[in-house]
Amino acid sequence: MDALTERFEQERPRLRAVAYRMLGSAAEADDAVQEAWLRFHRTDTGEIDHLPAWLTTVVARVCLSLLRTRRNHREEPLDGQPEPDDDRRDPGQEAELADSVGRALLVVLDALGPAERVAFVLHDMFAVPFDEIAPVLGRTAAATRQLASRARRRVKGGETAAADLPRRRKVVEAFLAASRGGDFEALLALLDPDVVLRADRFVGPSPAPIELRGVESVRRGAILASERARASELVLVDGSPGLLMERDGRPAVVLAFRVGGDRITGIEVIADPARLAGLQLAVF
């Protein structure tokens, strides 16, 4: 048992790095590695030809399952949120781990589907061959290669937007503060002259979709919705800063923003339950 533990501990840092890049959460990464240890402990090690590859496969399968569960429940944890009931986490180590990956890259990875994320992380970050990744995903090596290629294109296209995240977040935060406080002048400064707001028919009170064009119309709409703004919080909506209002613990209304420069050029108000279910939402 001591020998098995030593062999596993030698692999632990690499396994944790793999799991963290897939999950974006140090706590979940630790859980995935611990699950790999339990499976390793229950397995006849004489049947394992190459231990590092076997452990990587186990961790990848655990992570894939977690990603799929998280996607079904629309829960996208991002590190930096305190979890007071978990005393295993060291904030300094958390920050160091996040910085080693790149916080902007984590945001981009969160926009990938579970299979895309696993294929991209294993192949592009850890040089695992496609024929070894394919069984994890239940796909052919060729299909796995396509997944990684698609993920690579999305990552390259998203890195610039993710690096620009702090600026866009600042604009949305300012919009939220101005809406809550009924600050007319601040809203005028934040809205592009040609801004367009679109709200689906579930937003109400109109039974039809709403479209407002121009800074004055959108500003008036924001002021009228100040009560709703007070109940909203800043979130990531499919990887971009937005606002969320919940009802009974469930998403009720989401505001997705387009930001150009330092001004808001578009706002989409979403209350359709089917559309809300399809959004990836993450608390900052």
Write the layout of secondary structure elements.
Layout: H1 2-23, H2 26-42, H3 51-73, H4 91-101, H5 103-110, H6 114-125, H7 130-137, H8 141-163, H9 165-181, H10 184-190, E1 191-199, E2 210-213, H11 215-224, H12 226-230, E3 232-237, E4 240-247, E5 250-260, E6 263-270, H13 273-277, E7 281-283
Parallel strand pairs: 1-6
Antiparallel strand pairs: 1-2, 3-4, 3-7, 4-5, 5-6
Describe the structure.
It contains 13 helices and seven strands. With 284 residues, the protein is α+β, with helices and mostly antiparallel strands. A seven-stranded mixed beta sheet has the order 2-1-6-5-4-3-7. The two termini are 42 Å apart. 30% of the residues are buried.
Total helical elements: 13
Structural class estimated from helices and strands: alpha+beta
Q: Report low-confidence residues grouped into runs of 5 or more.
A: 74-89
* First and last CA, distance: 42 Å
Q: Report the major sheet.
A: 7 strands, mixed
The residue fraction in helices comes out at 55-70%
Q: What's the alpha carbon Rg, rounded to whole Å?
A: 22 Å
**Which term fits the overall shape?**
elongated
Element-by-element helix/strand order: HHHHHHHHHHEEHHEEEEHE
Strand order of the largest sheet: 2-1-6-5-4-3-7
